[in-house]
């Protein structure tokens, strides 16, 4: 038994150590996305942007159109008109109850971009909302890359900067201070071409898309938190009742 406990503890600490090691490899400072998945207007804008700019490459294959319609107060007609671009075998728009797949073939896209665009249903849970938000802001011009851009949060990413017309284009300029192993590199982004949005508008857009992905990763979050509070309230009220019940039962025993 002792041996078993020791080996379980050893396995646990080894897992902890490796996860910390993985987390530590992430050296870029991330910006705070400040997402709020109870903000429906932001989620509605997020899903619209996602449908227009991301869905062509990234499916949300673990989510259904009608679930999003219900949660975001959209009608089925709005969903069919604005979100569903894929057609079923009869050439009709996909049923709103369908999973949000897209028509991109993983084999071809891997050839085009070097890596297939992954499904993003669980992206906010895998990477965190702050990561996605920072990533959407971190594209910079790099002529050595096949798409002409690179990304400070995801170096050598295969994705083109699909929002460049809105954000504009930026260059990364780095200066080195110090010598050898002690050299510290400071980098900053310089805008070289203005986009159609102001930086504040673009931040808001990146936040809305991130917010939508944070919601889609766990659509029941809002209700889950509500249940949690209700359960805690019930338990604390019940504790009082249980206390008096206990007093009543033990009254005659003492
Ligand atoms: C033209 C196709 C294309 C479009 C459109 C596109 N992406 Fe991508 N995206 C890619 C590819 C390809 C990769 C994988 C890159 C790699 O692994 O090198 C990627 C990777 C990503 C990743 C990182 C995934 C990971 O590995 O964790 C995120 C996040 C992401 N995209 C978000 C978005 C968002 C948000 C949009 C819409 C604003 C979008 N993408 C639009 C092609 C696209």
Q: Describe it for me?
A:
The chain is an alpha+beta fold and 254 residues long. It has a single domain (25-218), classed as Cytochrome c-like domain (Cytochrome Bc1 Complex, Chain D, domain 2, Orthogonal Bundle). The chain is 50% helix and 13% strand. The protein is built from 10 helices and 6 strands. The strands form 3 sheets. Strands 1-2 form a two-stranded antiparallel ribbon. It has a two-stranded antiparallel sheet with strand order 3-4. The chain has a two-stranded antiparallel sheet with strand order 5-6. β3 and β4 (149-151) form a beta hairpin. α2 (40-53) crosses α9 and α7 runs antiparallel to α9. It is extended. The chain starts with a helix and ends with a helix. Mean pLDDT is 89; it is low at 20-25. It binds heme C. Heme c binds at residues 54, 57-58.
Ordered list of secondary-structure elements with their pairings:
Blueprint lengths: L1 H23 L15 H14 L6 E5 H7 L4 H7 L16 E2 L5 H8 L9 H5 L1 H9 L1 E3 L7 E3 L12 H4 E10 L6 E11 L4 H19 L3 H30 L4
Antiparallel strand pairs: 1-2, 3-4, 5-6
This protein binds heme C (HEC).
């Amino acid at each position: 038994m002792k041996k078993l406990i020791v080996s379980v503890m050893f396995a646990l600490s080894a897992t902890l150590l490796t996860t910390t090691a993985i987390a530590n490899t992430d050296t870029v400072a991330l910006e705070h996305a400040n997402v709020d998945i109870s903000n429906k207007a932001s989620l509605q804008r997020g899903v619209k942007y996602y449908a227009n700019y991301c869905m062509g490459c990234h499916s949300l294959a673990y989510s259904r159109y009608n679930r999003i319609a219900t949660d975001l107060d959209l009608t089925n007609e709005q969903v069919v008109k604005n979100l569903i671009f894929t057609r079923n075998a009869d050439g009709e728009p996909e049923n709103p109850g369908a999973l949000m797949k897209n028509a991109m073939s993983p084999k071809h896209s891997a050839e085009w971009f070097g890596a297939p665009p992954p499904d993003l249903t669980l992206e906010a849970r895998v990477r965190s909302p702050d990561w996605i938000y920072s990533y959407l802001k971190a594209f910079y011009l790099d002529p050595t890359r096949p798409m002409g851009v690179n990304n400070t949060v995801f170096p050598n990413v295969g994705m083109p900067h699909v929002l460049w017309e809105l954000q504009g284009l930026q260059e990364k300029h780095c200066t080195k201070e110090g010598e050898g192993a002690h050299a510290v590199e400071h980098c900053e982004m310089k805008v070289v071409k203005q986009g159609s949005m102001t930086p504040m508008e673009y931040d808001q857009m990146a936040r809305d898309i991130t917010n939508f992905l944070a919601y889609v990763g766990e659509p029941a979050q809002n209700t889950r938190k509500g249940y949690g509070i209700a359960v805690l309230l019930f338990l604390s009220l019940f504790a009082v009742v249980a206390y008096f019940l206990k007093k009543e039962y033990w009254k005659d025993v003492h």
